[in-house]
Amino acid sequence: MFVEFPDIHTHIHVLAPLLFFFLYAEIHFRFPGIPSRYFIKQPEILADVPHRINPGQPLPVLILIKDANRFPVTLQEINVDIISHNSRERIYHNTLNLDIDSEFWENLIDIDLSAKSKGSVQIDVEMHYHIAGKTYCIKNDNYKQTSHAPFDVLIDTHPLPKANNWYFGDLHYHSNYTSDQVEFGAPISASKTIAKRMGIDFFAVSDHSYDLDDHWNNFLKNDPDLKKWKHLWQTIEQINKEDDNFVIIPGEELSAGNHKNQNVHFLILNNREFFAGYGDSAEKILQTRPQWQISNVLKKLSPDAVSIASHPETNPPFVQRLLINRGKWHHADYTAQGLTGVQMWNGDKEHFLKHGLPAWIDLLLQGHKPVLLAGNDAHGNFNRFRQLSTPFWSMKENHLEVFAVARTGVFLEGSFTLDSLLQSIQKGKAIVTDGPFADLSLQEGNKLAKLGDTVQASNVQAEIKVLSSPAFGEISSIDLYIGDKIKRTEHPQSLDLPRDTGYSLELSVQLDNLPKSGYIRLVTVCKSKDREFHCFTNPVFINS
C-alpha cells in the first residue's frame, strides 16, 4: 500500500523496502520525494493459474485486485485464451462492468478444458478496466516492469504419482493474512480449490507472525486482541469441516531467535497459542531483538503441534543481516529439544541439493532425527513469482517459489485428518519430491519397518516401490544410502534396473552387514527430456 511518513517516529521502519531485496510485488509503498519506477495510481490487478492440473479437472483462473479502496476501478471484461500448437483459442469471455472499491477483491473462474488440448499449453488472461477516466487492457497483470507473458500450464494426462494411503501437500504457504508493506498472499478458500485441481491433498497456512498480530486494515498497528489470528483459525476450521478429502493446517511463520540471538524463521503448525515475533519485520525502529528464542518456543508448544525450521540453509542478504538482525539456523538450533523437522527444500531445488541436503545428512550422521520436509514459501504464486528486484527501480519474475512444485508426501495408516497427518509427520513417515513417488521399508523377520521406524538387525530385506508418470519421465536411477553414525559416513548403493524401467517398479534387495547404528534412505531420479525430477525419503533407522 501507499504509505506516507509524517515524521521519524512512524511505526513502520522507513528502511523496509530497502531491507526486503528480491521480495514481492507490492507497488504502492514509497517514500515522499523518492520516485518509484513501478508505482502506479492503480490497484494491483493480476491473474494466476496453477502450473499443472490433474486429468479431468477444470482450469482455475484466479483474479486478484488489491488496494482498490485507494484506487477504485471498474472491471469491465475478462477474456481467457489457450495457446497450443501455435494456435490461439478464446475459452472464456465475461463482461462484468463491476465497480470495485475494496481493499482485496477476488474472483475464481473454473474453465472446462475436457475438449481442449492436453499436455503443455499456455494461458493468457486479458482484463479490461476503467479507472480515473481512462480505459486499459492488460494481460496477466498490470505491473509496469513484468513480462505479461502467457502462463505455462501442464494439462496432465496422468495424476501425480502416489501409492495408497499417501497424501501430498505444501508445508509452507502464505495466504492473504500475510499483507504488509512488501508482500501479500492469496485467499485461503481459492487456494484450496486450486490445490485440489492440481491433485494436492493439503497445505499449511504459515503467515508471518508480524502480520497476524496486526489490525485488519492497518499493518502499522498491532491488535492486542489478535482478531486476525483468531479469524485465521476459525476460517480454516470451517473449511476443514466442509471437506473430508482435504486438510488445511493452521499455523504461523514465527520470527524467533537462534542461539546467536539473530532472527530466523520458524514454522509453528497447529499450535493455538500465538507467538509474537517482529524482530525482522522492520515495523519498529531499532527494535530488532527476537521476542522468542527457538528453545523457549519448543518448550511451550502443544503436543499436537509441529515445529519446522523454515528454509534454514538460506543465507540472508547483507543488508538484512546488518539492519534487521536476520540470521540463519545453525547446528545448535537444529538440535534444540523438540524440533520436529527441517524444511531444507524451499522451492529452489538447486539450493536444496547444494546446501540443504548435505546439512540434513550431517545431522543424521551425528545421531539426530529431524524430519526432512518440503515447501515453497509461495505467496499465492501458483504459476510464477513476481517480485521486486531493486527497490523503487525494477521488478522481475521467477519460478522458484511456486505453490506445490516441491511437495511433501506423508503416509497415513488411518483416516486422513489434521491430527493423523501431523502425527505421521512427527514420526518421520514422509518423503519430499518434485515428481516421482518412492517408498522404502525394511523387512526384519516378520516385522516391517517403514519410514521413521527403527530396525534392530544387521541383515534386512529392503522393499522399494517407485512410481512416475510421462510428465516426470521414466525411472532413471534408484539409490539406497546407508549411513553409519559411528563412523560418521554415508555410502550409496546403486540398484540395477531393468533395461526398460518405465514408470513403475518394485524391488526387493537383501542388505547384509549393516552398521550397528545408522539409517537407510532412498533417492530416486526420473528424467523427462532435459529435466531431472527427484524424490528423497526420510530414513528407516538402524539400532542393532
Topology:
Blueprint lengths: L15 H4 L24 E5 L3 E2 L5 E8 L6 E12 L2 E14 L3 E8 L7 E13 L2 E6 L11 E5 L10 E9 L13 H11 L3 E7 H4 L1 E2 L2 E5 L4 H15 L5 E11 L5 E7 L24 H7 L5 E4 L8 H6 L7 H4 L6 E6 L2 H17 L5 E5 L2 E2 L5 E6 L3 E5 L8 E5 L6 H9 L3 E4 L3 E8 L2 E3 L4 E2 L4 E8 L6 E11 L4 E6 L9 E8 L5 E12 L2 E7 L2 E4 L1
Parallel strand pairs: 2-9, 10-11, 10-19, 11-14, 16-17, 17-18, 26-33
Antiparallel strand pairs: 1-3, 3-6, 4-5, 4-7, 7-8, 7-9, 10-22, 12-13, 14-15, 15-16, 20-21, 22-23, 23-32, 24-25, 24-27, 27-30, 28-29, 28-31, 31-32, 31-33
How would you describe what is shown here?
The chain has about 550 residues and is mainly β. The protein contains 9 helices and 33 strands. It has a 16-stranded mixed β-sheet that branches. Strands 2, 4, 5, 7, 8 and 9 form a 6-stranded mixed β-sheet that branches. Strands 25-24-27-30 form a 4-stranded antiparallel β-sheet, with no helix packed on it. Strand 12 (about 215) and strand 13 (about 220) form a beta hairpin. The chain is globular. The N and C termini lie far apart (about 60 Å).
Structure, briefly:
With 544 residues, this protein is mainly β. 14% of the residues lie in helices and 40% in strands. It has a 16-stranded mixed beta sheet that branches. Strands 2, 4, 5, 7, 8 and 9 form a 6-stranded mixed beta sheet that branches. Strands 25-24-27-30 form a 4-stranded antiparallel beta sheet, with no helix packed on it.
